[in-house]
Amino acid sequence: MKIDPDNPADLSAQIAKAIRDAIVAGDLIVHQRLPSEAELADQFDVSRPTVREALKRLAAQSLIRTQRGATGGAFVNHLRFEEAYDQQITTSTLLLSMNAVSFDTACEARFALERACAPLAAVRRSPDHLATMRAEIHRQSQPGLSDEAFCASDVTFHRALVDATGNPVLSYQLAGAVEAMQPLMNMITFTARDRSAIIDLHQKIADAIEAHDERNAADGLHALEVETRTLAQSVMTARAARS
After folding, report:
1. CA gap 173, 168 in Å, rounded
2. For 76, phi and psi rounded to 5 degrees?
3. Whole-angstrom Cα distance, residue 162 to residue 116?
4. What does the pLDDT profile of the chain (243 residues) look like in tens digits?
5. What's this model's pTM, rounded to 2 decimal places?
6. Hey, do 11-76 and 81-242 end up sharing a CATH topology, with the first three levels equal?
7. Rounded CA gap, 158 and 208, in Å?
8. Are 114 and 159 spatial neighbours (Cβ–Cβ below 8 Å)?
9. How is domain 81-242 classified at the CATH fold level?
């Protein structure tokens, strides 16, 4: 592992990247103990605080974990998909907000990805996935449910559909698409949406998934996309008229 001392990039960032690259390449394996701070400082010819900052960066990415005591130190972490969801969601949310991605672009991407999950979900769904989807449909139909609670239930419903694929890579990739994009869509359209129409479409999707009917599941998602785009357009038209 090496760094370039003439590189203007932060030294701790270079060290973190060097260690991360070693983990990705398999030179450092899961549960392996990293050299001590003093050893890393000698290896990279930097101060121990610089090494400590690099290790903090890696820990923030869940790539390493630290232990105290005589047998302690920094160890390569066994990163699980579930632990990476929050980072994926945060990154997706920041990308959408910072790059001013249009509603239509986000909507197109999110539903295209989710429709791709429909065939696998229809084949592999478990009773638990179906139970979650049914429970959220029931929750959405409750009178007095707040917009925030409806939004959260909407997210849970669609996460259950994605998780029903039984593919952790898809669940990880779509965590950002569903949990970052869905609240954005809901908060834009909540003033105009017809909850009963959305619930009916959720019911159609859940019925299709339960019946192993991938075509109707995909059709339900397409209809939900059309409903979402139509609502957004009506909201934006009304806002423009008021302006």
Report:
1. 9
2. -65, 125
3. 10
4. 777 766 767 899 999 999 999 998 889 999 999 999 999 999 999 999 999 999 999 998 888 998 887 778 899 988 787 777 777 888 887 877 777 778 888 888 889 999 999 999 999 999 999 999 999 999 999 999 988 898 889 989 999 999 999 999 988 888 877 877 776 676 676 666 788 999 999 999 999 999 999 999 999 999 999 988 888 888 778 878 887
5. 0.73
6. no
7. 14
8. no
9. Four Helix Bundle (Hemerythrin (Met), subunit A) (1.20.120)
* Secondary structure class of 70 (helix, strand, coil): coil
* Structure token pair of residue 125: 């769904």
Beta strands in 45-90 (DSSP E): 64-67, 73-76
Q: Which CATH class is domain 11-76?
A: mainly alpha
Cβ 146 vs Cβ 152: under 8 Å: no
Query: What residue has token string 């001392």?
Result: 5
Domain ranges of the chain: 11-76, 81-242
Q: Are 213 and 125 in contact (CB under 8 A)?
A: no
Candidates 39, 41, 51; CA nearest to 10 is 51
